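Example 5.3 — Polyhydroxybutyrate depolymerase
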Amino acid sequence: MTAGRARARNVFHVLVLGTLVMLAGGCFDGHAVGAPRSATIPVGQSSQAIEWGGVSRTFNLYRPQELFGSVPVVVMMHGGYGTGAQAERAYHWDAKADNGHFLVVYPDGLNRAWNAGSCCGMPQQSNVDDIGFISAMVGAIEQQMPIDPTRIYATGMSNGAMMALRLGCETGIFAAIAPVAGTLMTDCSRAQPASLLQIHGTADDNVPYDGGPGKALKVNGAPRVNGPSVPSVNATWRAIDSCAPPVSHTTGVVTTETAECADGRAVELISVAGAGHQWPGGVPNPKLERLGLPQPSTAFDATDTVWQFFSQHHR
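Solution (predicted C-alpha cells):
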C-alpha cells in the first residue's frame, strides 16, 4: 500500500455485544439499540473486524466524501475464491458510491467462500453462520454512522450471489437484492417481500442458466453447483412479491423481464445471450482465464444497473 493511493485503511476491531443486533430466526430488524452515534467511519477506504461465532470476521468499507445524514448501504459479496478487497477492485462499486452517495461494504467469507445453503466449500460443510455475521456487520456499522434501515441492499457474484439470495430468503434486512451469476441454494418458503434483480449469462457453464450440475472451477476441491434454473428462481420471487406477469424486451444480446409487484416492489431478470460466468462490465483480469472463467461481458455495466435498481426501491 502506498501513500500515493490515498487510502484511509484504518484497521480496528469492533466488539459486537448481544444488544447491538436483534436476531430472530436469523433476521436483523435494521435498528440498533439507542440513539445513532455521530459518524466515525473514515472517509475513503477502511477495514474493520467483528467477533462472530468465535471467529474474527473482516470487512472493508468505502465511504464517499459527500455522505451525510441517514445513508443507504450496499453489501457487496465476493464470489468463491475471492475476497472483499478483490471485489472492491473488480466491480468499481467505490466510484458508483461517489456518484450515488451511499456506503458500500465488502465482507470476507471464511476460506474465501460463503455458506449459501447447500453451497459452498468449508463454510457450507461447517455450517458457518454467515447470516448472523452479515446481520451483525450491519448492526456494527449502524453504531458508527446513521444508516437508513429502509435502504439496505445486498448484491454478490457467483457464491456471493447465492449468499445474497439466502439473505433475501432468511432475513428482513434488505429492501432489494441483486444476485449476479448465482442461483438459489436454500429454502425460501419464509421469505419476506423484497425487490429482486437477477443478472445471468445464458452460456454460464459454472452456474447453468437452465439449472442442474455446473462445471467446477479449475481449483482443487472446487464444488460443482447444482441448483434450480435462473428463470425458476425469478418465478419464486415473483410469487413471494405478489407480482404481475413479467414484460420482456430485448436490446442486442440483453433481454430484460420486468414484473411489477405489490407495494411498489419489482422483480427483474436480465439475461445476457452468450455470456458466461461473469460480472458484466467488471474489470478484465488474466487470473479469470486460469480459473476457467471468461472475461466480463461489455454488453452493459452490471454495477450501474444494480445501483439504478436499488435506488428505486425502499423497504
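Remark. The chain has one domain: 44-214+224-311.
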